[in-house]
Amino acid sequence: MFGKRNTPIGTSKEVAAQKAESTAVVAVAPTAAAPAAQTGARSGEMDQRLTEIKLSVFNDLMATVDLGEFAKLDHKAVREAIGEIVAEIINMRNLMLSAAEQQSLITEICNDILGLGPLEPLLARDDIADIMVNGYNKVYIETNGIIQLTDIKFRDNQQLMNICQRIVQAVGRRVDEASPICDARLADGSRVNVIAPPLAIDGPALTIRKFKRDRLTLDKLMSFGTISPAGAKLLEIIGHCRINVIISGGTGSGKTTLLNCITNYIDRGERVITCEDAAELQLQQPHVVRLETRPPNLEGVGQVTMRDLVRNCLRMRPERIIVGEVRGPEAFDLLQAMNTGHDGSMGTIHANNPRECISRIENMIAMGGYSLPAKTVREQIAGAVNVIVQASRLRDGSRKITHVTEVVGMEGDVVTLQDLFLYEIQGEDAQGKIVGRHRFTGLRPGFYDRVRYFGKERDLAEIMESTSA
Ligand SMILES: Nc1ncnc2c1ncn2[C@@H]1O[C@H](COP(=O)(O)OP(=O)(O)OP(=O)(O)O)[C@@H](O)[C@H]1O
Ligand SMILES: [Mg+2]
After folding, report:
1. Ligand 1 pocket check: which of 257, 277, 438 to mutate, most ligand atoms within 8 Å of Cβ?
2. Which of 157, 150, 159, 84 shows the shortest CA–CA distance to 115?
3. Model confidence over 18-76: pLDDT tens digits?
4. Would the CB of 240 count as within 6 Å of ligand 1?
5. How far is CA 14 from CA 5, 10, 31, in A?
6. For ligand 1, atom 13, which residue shows the shortest CA distance?
7. 209 contacts 191 by C-beta, under 8 angstroms
8. What is the pTM of this model?
9. 97-112 per-position pLDDT tens digit
10. CA 79 – CA 87 distance, rounded (Å)
11. Residue 153 CA to ligand 2 centre (angstroms)
């Protein structure tokens, strides 16, 4: 059935020679990204003996099957076929394996051939936020806000590069010395970035922001302590009452998650247009147009920037515009949109506090080459943005909403801000976990009239009274 199958299973030496020939096949899908060290390094899980058996079985398998034939079958059929052949090899070679060991061997070999090799077990876990591969022998993960090194390793940088290549090829891109930086997405929606040598000095660096199968909602954020029930209600009101929001936060602080949660409260009848570098948002409304930027092709043409998308949005009769991440001159266009009747537009910005968020916007506008006086830019910001929601990852790994801050207006040359809702750190418990509390400052929001217009003033008054200091 599989072409080379009639070849007798050879001795280890013959197999090694055949293997050397077959490595040329590596880059096509399915790929024979030889597994070896991937399991070898998992000292706790599989001992040296198993690693050797795996390598020898893998080599025999490669000598026996034709990967081209596998490419024509679906994954389930390939897994079944591999299972049968591996069982046969184990029998013929008289290898001593328990049923569990045999099963794990088959799974790992299938992962190498069909999937993302050593990364497969990590991709299958839903408790991991990020997978960070720094060259073949260092794979870090982030769980519960804490980054830790795993014992997973690739055989070498070539195997890692093959896997990176396979990921980006699936979305019609390529990564090599000529174009060593690439953004992509896995089939499940996880966001991927690859940067290859020579830019990455110690081997390819692969970063995966894992897609959460269980979408985080404000209720879940409440149960994690990210926000209090009253604070969650405030965000719900902000989302519903078409208030212009910027979500500010550091890397991985939960900005996109929060944006997703707030968009939940957009009325189902509204026409929403989203612009992202890699589509991550999962809006539940029916009337949504999703747009994605495009990098230049190999000839350096065809790029579509975030700015192009935001500008184009304005011609698409949007009611709200949502920009996944504002990082450049598109800030100006988003402000324009917010100022010209697209109330309830939103975006995220990398900044460590609301004040810094304002200066980041100013800088981004300056990057666009506008020679506007600083005061004019600030007036533009003060007129456009109603609220800044600040997300933070604290030193104990927990994620918190630390501020809901209102942009009130201008005083002289300065944009005035007022905090409506804050997280106050009170100390640490015995386990080193930060202890604190969320509270309203008691200040009446400037957007009160708008909330009243949407009939939510009672809700607002209730939550503010409940936890004001
Ligand atoms: N409040 C939270 N509690 C626990 N995990 C969270 C919370 N918010 C977000 N996460 C998880 O943290 C990871 C990072 O979240 P998210 O993508 O929203 O961050 P980000 O600030 O947008 O990151 P980036 O700067 O890379 O765009 C995700 O895996 C997400 O599921
Ligand atoms: Mg994000």
Report:
1. 257
2. 159
3. 333 332 222 233 444 445 444 434 455 556 777 778 778 888 887 777 766 776 677 78
4. no
5. 15, 6, 21
6. 129
7. yes
8. 0.80
9. 888 888 888 888 887 7
10. 12
11. 27
